[in-house]
Amino acid sequence: MEELSELQLKELKETLDTLRHELKVALEVSADSTQTVVLDQQAYGRVSRVDALQQQSMALANKEQHQAQLRKVLAALARVETGDYGYCLDCDEDIGYSRLKARPEAAYCLKCQSQREEGSRS
After folding, report:
1. What gap in Å lies between CA 25 and CA 36, rounded to an integer?
2. CA 19 to chain centre
3. Positive or negative, the Cα torsion across 91, 92, 96, 97?
4. Which end of the chain is more exposed for a tag (fewer CB within 10 A), N or C?
5. Please, what's the b/e burial string for 53-92 (b: 16 or more CB within 10 A of its CB; e: otherwise)?
6. Rg of the Cα trace of the chain?
7. Per-residue pLDDT tens for 74-115?
8. How far is the C-alpha of 108 from the C-alpha of 35, rounded, in Å?
9. 0.85 cut: is pTM over it?
10. Which residues have a Cβ under 8 Å from the Cβ of 55 and sit 6 or more positions away?
């Protein structure tokens, strides 16, 4: 694999900046959905309360997923600033443009990522 060209790095940084913005907006929008559900028996029927709780649960899961991805994006942007972006955090090999194009927040090459996923299943 090759190191990223200046043009590729610029493109990926712009993608990361866009992702950061989109995730922040998504987190702001989801703030209302994750508020505590008021269980007012007069206002909600039993099914509606269950529905509201399920929606809140899904919104919380989405919020956690967005927060985790935002942390990865911010870490990737920090690596861009330090010059470490595009190198695997485990083996220090190039991650590769095609992988970064698909997952710009990727911190590991495919080999190391696969090993991490196999290790977490054990």
Report:
1. 20
2. 9
3. positive
4. C
5. eeeeeebeeebeebeebbebbeebbebbeeeebbbbeeee
6. 19
7. 999 999 999 999 999 999 999 999 999 999 999 999 999 999
8. 35
9. no
10. 33
